[in-house]
């Protein structure tokens, strides 16, 4: 697939539906044995399918950038299980990547010269967000969220949750991180965010409405966002 060239500080996010990816030529290849084994431990068949589609998309993108077959992309895992390229930071391996999937949607982010985290989430009813808010917000942020008009709360919670997840994935904290300590607001536009020593740019959207997505990239430039469909891929908004 034609993947844009990334200079240092550049990044991209590709969004897709797993069903569309399955219909594209070239997406029927097997993943490496360790990845297939990890996916096989997922209980539901539909969850296994979307996870496999996300990793196939990631490997196709990275293989195109590295000039190798998707199966030859040297993926390894670090602290808290965060995936990265073996030899990351050296020569052509100064690429960072991240993978997300939820429901039938997938997202893959790639950055050159800095970390990136992505998240994609299905919407939830407001009463479910009210329960999640206790784990997502500290008391002050939860009070501010509850002060929003009722009709705006679910969308705001979705954007903030995706953003918090993207930040924790970019830093490598992952599930070990406390989302209450990631103090984000639904800004409606990309905003800088400092987490430890990492200066991130955080943005969110609803490219596959009603599902939401977010990115956190270690750059002062927003990623180029693309949508991959059964017919090809295009820049978001075109």
Could you walk me through the main structural features you see in this protein, from its secondary elements to its overall organization?
The chain is 32% helix and 27% strand. The chain has six helices and eleven strands. The strands form three sheets. The chain has a five-stranded mixed sheet with strand order 4-5-1-10-11. A hairpin with a 2-residue loop joins strand 7 and strand 8. The longest helix is centred in the N-terminal third of the chain and has 22 residues. The chain starts with 10 loop residues before the first strand and ends with a strand. The mean pLDDT is 90.
Q: Describe the biggest sheet?
A: 5 strands, mixed
- Sheet-strand content, in percent, reads 25-35%
In the predicted model, the low-confidence regions spanning at least 5 consecutive residues are none
Number of strands: 11
Oligomer: single chain
SSE pattern, N- to C-terminal? EHHHEEEEEHHHEEEEE
Notable characteristics:
single chain; 238 residues; alpha+beta; 5-stranded mixed beta sheet; 4-stranded antiparallel beta sheet; 6 helices; 32% helix; globular
Summarize the structure.
The chain is an alpha+beta fold and 238 residues long. It has helices at residues 18-22, 33-40, 45-66, 126-136, 139-146, 150-171, and strands spanning 11-17, 75-77, 83-85, 95-102, 105-112, 116-121, 191-195, 198-205, 212-217, 224-229, 232-235.
């Amino acid at each position: 697939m034609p993947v844009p060239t990334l200079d240092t500080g550049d990044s991209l996010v590709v969004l897709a539906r797993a069903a569309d990816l399955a219909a594209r030529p070239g997406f029927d290849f097997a993943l490496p044995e360790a990845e297939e084994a990890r996916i096989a431990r997922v209980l539901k068949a539909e969850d296994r399918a979307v996870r496999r589609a996300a990793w196939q998309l990631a490997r196709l993108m990275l293989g195109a950038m590295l000039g190798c077959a998707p199966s030859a992309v040297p993926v390894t895992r670090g602290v808290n299980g965060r995936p990265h390229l073996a030899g990351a930071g050296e020569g052509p391996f100064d690429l960072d990547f991240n993978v997300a999937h939820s429901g039938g949607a997938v997202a893959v982010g790639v950055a050159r010269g800095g970390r990136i985290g992505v998240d994609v989430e299905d919407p939830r009813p407001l009463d479910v967000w009210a329960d999640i808010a206790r784990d997502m917000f500290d008391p002050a942020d939860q009070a501010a969220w509850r002060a929003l008009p009722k009709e705006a709360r679910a969308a705001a919670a979705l954007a903030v949750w995706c953003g918090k997840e993207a930040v924790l994935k970019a830093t490598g904290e992952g599930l070990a991180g406390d989302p209450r300590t990631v103090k984000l607001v639904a800004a409606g536009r990309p905003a800088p965010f400092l987490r430890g020593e990492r200066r991130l740019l955080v943005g969110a959207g609803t490219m596959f409405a009603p599902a939401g997505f977010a990115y956190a990239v270690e750059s002062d430039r927003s990623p180029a966002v693309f949508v991959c469909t059964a017919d090809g891929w295009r820049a978001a908004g075109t």
